[in-house]
């Protein structure tokens, strides 16, 4: 009942906000007075919701259903308009690292954007099959000549620093080329990473990328296995790290007002509507990129890289660790599998499908992972000790019971010397 009330109040509040903003903005005063009555009707409902819950007036349920239908129609219209706005200005996205994960995201990006990929190995045919242009990593100039809005780094955690070290001078060179062409200030592409460890990625990007490049740190908490049927409701973690040369306060990314961005040093606040063309453009481009994940149904989670790594060590890393440990035990199907055991085999399958480099990267570049291993070892020791202790208790009980038995027998023999002796224990 309490939950129903809260939901009802929220719907009424939201509707009130949406309808009043909508009609006042539209400036259509003739409609406004009629609609004002409707707003009043809903307002009175909101103010008096206890009354409606006490006894539902005849026809009220119909009215509520009607309101609900109107709201969802309005929401659908907003979503359609947003989608068409996105599609009218599709981004040009470059992907560096066209391995398992790079291909997986490229497939979905291709629905929303023009995609150009590059990698160490030759993926020309595979890329063509996904509607993606392919350029070898040995030719970064040709890759950058595509004038990309966004470049996503999807290389292994282990090779991230070295790849960026080799790539960054070409970004610098491309910026100089464009500066000469335009004669004015130029902005680099937005650089995004998808690494499963975040503090390392953040540090390396701030250190190595030209300051004309904005930075967005992300971690899609899913992959080719868990996301094979779509991205709906899957978690997408992100931190807006740098916009228009300003490094943003990472902690604020997870808890503050999303319309306000705070500088990492000095704490100066920047509104997303700030009166600086470069800032507004940077925010807009970041939002357009994030909208792709949103449109695919991801649950968007703004979070600092530091906080991400703390959580991930005790969730993602421990999952991979257990999967690898059980995998190395050589578990296989049996004719009598329980559903619990089938889940275990699934875990082993999905974690070992990822490269060992990825697992090693999770271990090496998340400073919390060593503690996770120690905790797991301790927990294993605790559980096994508990088993041993129980077994010992049982043995002591049975020895004690045997002693009592022997004592009783001896006593019986002493008291009744003529009785036949008990045989066995
Ligand atoms: P991975 O083994 O972590 O990375 C493979 C990719 O790294 C390939 O594109 C490979 O290029 C490239 N690479 C490896 N060593 C390289 C080097 N020395 N120089 C240049 N490139 C190198 O497997 P992955 O699953 O594709 O993961 C890629 C990234 O996505 C990782 O950072 C991972 O943390 C992140 N991620 C993965 C998942 C997932 O479920 N798999 C989910 C979220 C995020 P070539 O193929 O050309 O050799």
From TrEMBL:
Residue ranges of the region described as Disordered: 254-275
Biological process, per Gene Ontology: tyrosine biosynthetic process
Residue ranges of domain Prephenate/arogenate dehydrogenase in the record: 91-418
Gene Ontology molecular functions: arogenate dehydrogenase (NADP+) activity; prephenate dehydrogenase (NAD+) activity; prephenate dehydrogenase (NADP+) activity
Signal peptide span: 1-21
Source organism, top-level taxon: Eukaryota
EC code(s) of this entry: 1.3.1.78
Record's keyword terms, sorted: Oxidoreductase, Signal
One Pfam assignment: TYRAAT1_C
Keyword field contains Signal: yes
Name of the protein in question: Arogenate dehydrogenase (NADP+), plant
